[in-house]
Amino acid sequence: MELAKRHLLLGITGGVAAYKAAELSRELQRRGATVQVVMTEAATRFIGPPTFQALTGQPVFTDQWDPRIDNSMAHIELTRRADAIVIVPASADFLAKLAHGLADDLLSTLCLARNCPLLAAPAMNREMWAQAPTQRNVRQLTADGVRLLGPGSGDQACGETGMGRMLEPDELAEDIAAFFTAQRLAGREILITAGPTFEPIDPVRGITNLSSGKMGFAIARACRQAGGQVTLVAGPTMLPTPRGVRRFDVRTARQMHDAVMDRLDGPQARVDVFISVAAVADWRIANASTSKLKKTADGAPPQLQFAQNPDILASVAARPGAPYCVGFAAESEDLERHGQEKRERKGVPLLVANIGHETFGMDDNELLLIDAGGSHRLPRASKTELAASLVNELAARLAHPIARS
Question: Label partner for 281 (CA 20 to 30 A): which of 143, 208, 313, 383?
Fold first, then answer.
């Protein structure tokens, strides 16, 4: 789990968004973290400490002089084993305290006495967020090394709409996980294709495959968490877009090809890595009908004519100054030999083979990495874990390239 062995001190201040901290505490634990909650007195007016004690299994602290701390130094004892302090929500008042080094309650005092990173998720009315004092405080906190998570824009409890809304718990959990992820792809532009393609026979029928897109989306997420700037070209899938990833939806193989080439062309275009995870149809229907095909009286099937689709991966790899290209393959037998042949045929330095075609749509998988030096197996794990392992392999290869053949 991505936050395994991480101990997070979750600080909660007074604001209606405090209720979201309850869901966040559960999500952080689901990802492997242990969570210790500290609340301001104002926060307890919105949600009670027993809620967090039940959710985290840890005692909740609100008072600097809590008798459960033998030496009356809760501000020291609570921070020394924390990997980070996360303030959710961070009110305008609390941001001002942090920016000016005030320490008039337990939470503000332990923030000042910390020896670990501090993250804060602002939450306030749009006018409060926009005011000059708040923006000065934000600039000062950023200069001081505090990581601000958000805010976002949207409907607010006051009935207004605009900037200042706290990020949702799943967004915050993603950003916190990314904070603890080594930024091994920082500064890299990553282009990824994912999902199936759909080749129409007529307006209501078509040829597709069983790809769910889960592996490609997991890789996009892992690349983004590792600091990469990620663009995802996705075939037909209902999967949500990973946080911070730019997404372009396509339907057919030719549309996917054109979308990829559009990302590669142009005076400002720059792609450092291309990862072709999509299960792209090799053929399309050349004589697709513009109206629904009807059954004939004699029951004869329609006469479909096939045409070959463009090979997206080979086309990218053959370009002058091509990005580092990673291909995916799903083979049913003799995986390493067929994978090596495909890697050489496509002209790419790295090919990733799914071990077993039955992994389509499943949440776990097993991969074989094939390059000019041979093969390396990534043992069965969740696609999220495999994506993180693949990113580490990719980052190492970008730092020390392996020959293509």
Answer: 383
